[in-house]
Amino acid sequence: MSDSESAPAATTPGAGRSASALPPEAAAIALGYAATGPALDLGALLWDGRCLPDARIRVPLAALNRHGLVAGATGTGKTKTLQLIAEQLSAQGVPVFLADVKGDLSGISAPGAPGDQVRARADEVRQRWTATGFPAEFYALGGIGTGIPVRATVTSFGPVLLAKVLQLNRTQEQSLGLIFHYADTKGLELFDLKDLRAVVAFLTSDEGRAELKEIGGLSTATAGVILRSLTAFEAQGTAGFFGEPEFDTAELLRTASDGRGLVSVLELPAVQDRPALFSTFLMWLLADLFHDLPEVGDLDRPKLVFFFDEAHLLFDGASKAFLDSITQTVRLIRSKGVGVFFVTQSPKDVPSDVLGQLGNRVQHALRAFTPDDQKALRATVKTFPDSPYDLEEVLTGLGTGEAVVTVLSERGAPTPVAATRLRAPESLMGPLDAAALDRAVSTSPGYARYAQAVDRESAYEKLTAARATAPTAPRAPATGPKAEPSMVEQVVGSGMFKSLARSIGTQVGREITRSLFGTAKRRR
Fold it and tell me: What is the DSSP string of 147-164?
């Protein structure tokens, strides 16, 4: 059993020594991390060049839904910190979601390998280290890479997120929203990209121009730009990310048979060259959770802790509507029992409105080689509470696996800033063997549910069928009687697609309810 599971809750800064045995400044810091309830152990206090193992730096479990930030330069230990926190959450029955961009978090499912470095770190922080694997499921976007395929329908994904992926400007984003609104109200289901492309192509065709005119604010030119963007996007091999069966985000809330929280690992190495796509997909997962989960208020432990790796990619080039939706999601999802941790190199990568909502901070070392680096360092220091440390000096001098920490206490107040030597993860610090990963995926019940893509009748098939049955009428003479309307014109005329408005398991014939990011609430 790991130390995090077996150690009793501490009401003093450490076990075996009283607060008065520590240097006064260190004792005052350690007192801020005493917890009476369940908590995670991050490590031991660093003070005056020494590691003080009796001064334990702990995070109350109840504070984990107050969101957080794990930041630091490349190579400073952010990934191991994620692994450490995820292990302890799982051990205490809290499910975890991890985005594995580099492929080195899959080892969380296997026991760690003891070695001199692990033993030395465990001794330094007085950790009873035990090699332990944790229950995990592995996913892959669209099935690209090794993992259970994760897909979203275009309808569920919504126009704001899709506009981010397509790199549309604000006007084009708003126009895409009008196209989604049109498809929703006409009963045209947008399951995959070819469905959306078919609707846009129809609206820009001779038959659909009358419909286009009825959509206020959508010009033919803008619709044409969106159509070309969609076509180019599909040409990049992205079609597999959208479609059915759509991933049910309730899968992320499960616990294992032994009561430990399931660690859901989204394997992203195969798509790391498509950062806008995978970062936006992570936001869709959060938005979908937000839609589905009930309000629960403040729990004694979160329902899920969601780690958002490479967070800067989410905010790069984001529209105001997109940023506003992120801010709103982060603010409101806390009351649904979900904690979100953004993982990035610098706090300046996160907009201030979002950063202000992140109550838990683990800041690894920063570099100060250039004037820009020095400016970023000073800005980072200003985001911390007042501290007896010289934080500029500390942040540039931290070693690998060390960090400056401040979290929310059980009273909801920020704890004192603590330079911390972090504990060693107990699972494998590196990628799982490829054969073992393949076995874990192929034997999972989730693989049978999501492996095979399904292509049901939707907008593409309906519009294709309508065109196929349209008569080829000769052009009417200028002075002759008006030609009979084509089948497509009849379909989109006064009947408003009534001939096609048959329910096939979705909300056909009435507008789909959309909320944050324009995403659609899951149909049950």
Answer: SEEE-B-HHHH-HHHHHH
Sheet holding 402-406, edge to edge: 50-60, 39-47, 418-422, 402-406, 360-363, 68-71, 338-344, 304-308, 96-100, 263-267, 136-141, 148-150
Q: Which residue has the tokens 């790199």?
A: 167
Could you tell me the CA-to-CA distances from 286 to 19, 161, 305 in Å, in that order? 41, 12, 11
Residue range(s) in the chain whose domain bears CATH number 3.40.50.300? 24-151+248-451
Total Cβ atoms within 10 A of residue 72: 26
- The count of other CB atoms within 10 Å of the CB of residue 36 is 10
Q: How far, in Å, CA of 216 to CA of 175, rounded?
A: 9
d(CA 356, CA 213): 44
User: Mapped to the 3 state alphabet, what secondary structure does 234-282 carry?
Assistant: HHCCCHHHECECCCCHHHHHCECCCCCECEEEEECHHHCCCHHHHHHHH
Q: What is the pTM of this model?
A: 0.87
Looking at CATH, the fold of the domain delimited by 24-151+248-451 is given as Rossmann fold (3.40.50)
Q: Crossing angle for the helix pair 170-185 and 159-166, nearest 10 degrees? A: 140
Mean pLDDT in consecutive groups of 10 residues from the start of the chain, 524 residues = 42 45 93 94 96 96 94 92 97 96 93 95 97 97 94 95 92 93 92 95 87 82 93 89 96 97 95 88 93 90 94 85 89 94 92 93 93 91 92 95 96 95 97 95 96 94 84 49 43 37 34 76 57
